[in-house]
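Figure 6 in text form: structure in, sequence out.
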């Protein structure tokens, strides 16, 4: 597109030059005729002016020839650029498919290994853990997947936390750890932390591999093997199943949501069925203002659960990898926007005095990149009459870096109707505002790792204060996420942060709790 714009500008300049040449030639022609008339056909004058006329015509012909040659060259360059882009897209698609297949094999292999393995993102949340981790922590999968390391590691958390800086800086880190299991038993572990992807100076996360020095894994009493695996040796893995024993002694075996959706012949159809039949649930988590802001009626982040997650106690967000695999994330974003606006206007009809709070909706990369999604948002706002200023879209910092133009086009398409925008997880990749240049955001949500580390050193607190000060100078408000205690809230207020979000403020729950909190159960 930029090449076409440059070509258009270049051709425009060439056209102007050609017109000037033609005008000059016509002027000289008129002058020749006038000279002939007034000099009574003097041969010297005729020769002089004829030479000038010839030079002008030759110059015009040369300019036309150069312009034609330039057009041909630019056209060929554009064709080569298109071919290169098509090849790059093909290679990227093949690489993406290969990566997904590799990750699937890695998960299968991980569950077959006796050593605990799991992945930590920059928010220090556990993902992609294997069965051995459930055995050593004596926790079911629902209390590990997408949970904070603090809640999973227990007494070992503080020591592991102090070791997380190196892998998040792209360095492999080895150390020894004495793991105390519930009940008093201890295991000596050799821990290796591997940044992923390797070679990245600021990786989005890292793998943790814990090798018991004695070679033994303690099996938990509340994580039991599937009956189909009853013949396996005690030291072998029990398969990719999570089990919870209730108070009556009954064992509930839960497969991951990913496995449930991917089972069968058409997992894509299952997810489409969930979208078309409203099998998703809107959840909300309050974002509390730390300063008095006039004319505000509350702020909430909208979260999404699949009804099957609630009914079967599955970890939230398990459907996301399936949606990404089949390109359905934008369809889910559309469902969220439509359902949120319809719910809000239904509540407004039931309670006319209710002031709609600001709702923050996370957007996927595919939604931001598609101009049709922006038009869909505008049409839905007009259809429902929802106040656009109360709808705020959260866009990840990664998208602002890798797809800056797409983010810019989306903001420009929706901002005229007065919707607002937040850059999410700011500082998780780059602690700089440079990549936000030209993007008109209203809020900046600071990465949770920064918030969790503010008490490590005075430098971390100064960094938080710097972010707050720059936000205010740029006319943006700051939001701190993963706020989990009163001490952190006090530090945020001292740093000048505008809003806080986390378990210390509010836990996620069904969106109806917003109305229930104000009107009780009279819905």
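Output sequence:
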């Amino acid at each position: 597109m930029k090449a076409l714009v440059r070509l258009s500008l270049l051709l425009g300049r060439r056209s102007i030059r050609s017109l000037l040449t033609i005008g000059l030639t016509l002027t000289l022609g008129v002058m020749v005729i006038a000279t002939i008339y007034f000099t009574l056909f003097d041969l010297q004058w005729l020769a002089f002016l004829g030479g000038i006329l010839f030079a002008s015509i030759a110059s015009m012909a040369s300019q036309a020839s150069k312009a034609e040659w330039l057009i041909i060259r630019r056209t060929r360059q554009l064709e080569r650029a298109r071919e290169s882009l098509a090849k790059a897209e093909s290679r990227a698609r093949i690489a993406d498919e290969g990566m997904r297949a590799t990750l699937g094999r890695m998960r299968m292999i991980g569950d077959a290994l006796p050593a605990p393995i799991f992945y930590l993102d920059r928010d220090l949340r556990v993902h992609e853990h294997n069965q051995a981790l459930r055995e050593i922590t004596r926790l079911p999968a629902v209390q590990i997947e997408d949970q904070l390391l603090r809640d999973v590691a227990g007494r070992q958390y503080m020591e592991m936390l102090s070791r997380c800086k190196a892998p998040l800086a792209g360095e492999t880190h080895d150390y020894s750890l004495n793991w105390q299991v519930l009940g008093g038993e201890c295991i000596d572990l050799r821990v290796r932390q591997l940044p992923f992807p390797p070679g990245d100076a600021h990786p989005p996360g890292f793998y943790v591999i814990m090798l018991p020095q004695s070679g033994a894994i303690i099996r938990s009493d509340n994580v039991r093997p599937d009956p189909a695996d009853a013949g396996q040796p005690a030291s072998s893995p029990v398969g990719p199943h999570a089990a919870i024993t209730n108070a009556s002694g009954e064992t509930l075996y839960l497969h991951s949501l990913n496995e449930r959706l991917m089972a069968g012949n058409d997992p894509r159809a299952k997810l489409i069925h969930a979208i078309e039949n409203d099998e998703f649930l809107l959840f909300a988590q309050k974002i509390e203002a730390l300063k008095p802001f006039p004319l505000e009626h509350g702020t909430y982040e909208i979260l999404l659960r699949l009804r099957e997650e609630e009914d079967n106690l599955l970890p939230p967000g398990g459907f996301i990898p399936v949606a990404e695999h089949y390109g359905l994330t934008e369809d889910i974003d559309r469902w969220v926007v439509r359902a949120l606006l319809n719910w809000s206007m239904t509540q407004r009809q039931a309670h006319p005095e209710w002031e709609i709070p600001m709702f923050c909706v996370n957007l996927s990369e595919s939604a931001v990149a598609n101009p049709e999604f922006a038009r869909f948002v505008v049409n839905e706002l007009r259809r429902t009459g929802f106040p656009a200023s109360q709808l705020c879209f959260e866009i990840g910092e990664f998208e602002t870096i890798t797809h800056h133009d797409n983010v810019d086009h989306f903001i420009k398409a929706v901002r005229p109707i007065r919707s607002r925008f937040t850059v999410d997880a700011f500082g998780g990749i780059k602690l700089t505002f440079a990549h936000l240049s030209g993007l008109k955001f209203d809020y900046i949500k600071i990465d949770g790792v920064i918030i969790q580390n503010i008490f490590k050193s005075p430098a971390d607190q100064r960094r938080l204060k710097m972010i707050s000060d720059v936000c205010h100078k740029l006319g943006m408000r700051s939001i701190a996420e993963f706020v989990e205690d009163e001490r952190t809230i006090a530090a945020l207020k001292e740093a000048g942060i505008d809003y806080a979000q986390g378990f210390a403020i509010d836990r996620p729950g069904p969106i109806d709790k917003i109305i229930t909190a104000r009107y009780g159960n009279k819905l």
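Caption detail: The chain has three domains: 2-107, 114-254, 257-519.
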